[in-house]
Write a structure and sequence with these properties.
- By secondary structure, the chain is mainly α.
- It has one domain.
- Helix content is 60%, strand content 4%.
- The protein has 12 helices and 4 strands, in the order ααβαβββααααααααα.
- α2 packs across α6.
């Protein structure tokens, strides 16, 4: 891809991303307004629609500073502890050059060639083929790869995956996605809280809320003047509040998808720009295709990965473009060659009873007996260095 086109797309993507994040932040206030509507219905179940809207809007104005402080505190907590939370979920552990010389050297060479600060390296013990980057500042940046990826991909393919994640860091994608996940988490948390509050409310006789059966006659007469029966305005307001909660949740998911999908294509292109090897990026994607599921990982973690095989209904909530579309873009714009879907060799595809990885330098220790799988032969696919 031409450098001008690539960097222009990156700059445009950052601008759109900031607008999307601002919209995501506004959804918090939509939830606060919906919560205020439900609260006013609980306090007075015989008001009119106009009454509830006016009072809830006044509540929103009063609550906006507190809501802003609450979201900011949530972000600050995540700023310091998000990596620990992710490591606890995935089991990722820091590795040094002595522990993973092959992986460390590949990443170090990429960083030195472009003057990029070296992020931390982490490895999680999983047969899945995947990797992801995290961090909100240069001291926190880290790249986590699975042990299955290290066993399956060769050096050029691993370098391409590292270049993909390094591009996410260079372009600021990691910070935006982490913040988006945090804010979307706030939306989901309060949306569920308000929804549970709604389901716990009960109706009294005559269609009014049981918690407000002793409301004043003046409120009832005001409701009648608006053409509403007792509690009729409350029904409409509750429906409106539930609709706002569902809309806020749905839009938060759509914003995350909009942030994620476009960035994967740019990260693929950035990897080719770093490694000058589009074929390696294509073959890495083909090997990862359909094999990236991290058991036990949350959806937020999967959204950060090279590939997220989890899909919503009709692909509506897929967080990543399909592998076919990503490969097609690399073939069209980077001049790569698509080998088509790749079948992994049997020993790589079935790692459930594999022995621990052996060092790449020096003699390989004999494998321990493990039933019918204890006598693994050393062939070209039995190597752990991926060469």
């Amino acid at each position: 891809m031409a450098a001008y086109g690539l960097y222009t797309h990156i700059a445009s993507n950052k601008f759109r991303s900031m607008l999307l994040l601002a919209g995501l932040f506004l959804l918090i206030y939509v939830l606060v307004f919906a919560g205020a509507l439900l609260a006013e219905v609980m306090i007075n179940g015989n008001g009119s629609v106009q009454y509830y809207l006016a009072v809830a809007f006044a509540d929103l104005v009063k609550a906006m500073p507190l809501a802003t402080i609450g979201v900011a505190a949530w972000i600050v907590i995540a700023y310091f502890f998000h990596q620990s939370i992710i490591d606890a979920v995935t089991g990722g552990e820091d590795v040094t050059r002595q522990q993973q010389p092959r992986l460390y050297n590949l990443l170090e060479n990429l960083c030195i060639s472009r003057g990029i600060p070296m992020p931390k390296l982490k490895v999680m013990d999983s047969d899945a083929l995947n990797a992801f980057a995290t961090g909100l500042n240069p001291r926190q940046y880290s790249i986590t790869v699975t042990s299955g990826l290290l066993r399956t991909l060769n050096d050029q393919e691993i370098e391409s995956v590292l270049g993909h994640e390094l591009t996410h860091i260079r372009n600021g994608d990691v910070q935006l996605m982490v913040v988006a996940v945090i804010i979307a988490g706030v939306v989901g948390f309060f949306g569920e809280l308000f929804f549970r509050l709604f389901t716990n409310l009960s109706w009294g006789s005559g269609g009014s809320w049981s918690s407000s059966s002793s409301s004043s006659s003046s409120s009832s007469s005001s409701s009648d003047r608006d053409g509403k029966n007792s509690g009729g305005g409350a029904v409409i307001i509750v429906i409106l509040a539930v609709a706002l909660i569902l809309l806020a949740w749905l839009l938060s998911q759509v914003v995350k998808l909009a942030l994620s999908r476009s960035r994967e294509l740019l990260a693929d292109a950035g990897s080719v720009e770093l490694t000058k090897n589009p074929d390696a990026m294509i073959s890495a994607l083909r090997k990862i295709e359909g094999r990236g599921e991290l058991p036990g990982a949350t959806s937020a973690v999967m959204e950060l990965c090279v590939d997220n095989p989890r899909e919503g209904f009709a692909d509506l909530f897929a967080t990543h473009p399909s592998i076919d579309s990503r490969v097609r873009a690399l073939v069209t714009y980077a001049g790569g060659h698509d080998p088509g879907p790749l079948a992994l060799p049997p020993e790589t595809a079935d790692e459930a009873n594999r022995p621990p990885s052996a060092p790449t330098d020096g003699p390989r220790p004999p494998p321990l007996p493990r039933g019918p799988w204890g006598s693994r032969t050393s062939g070209p696919w039995g190597r752990t260095d991926g060469g």
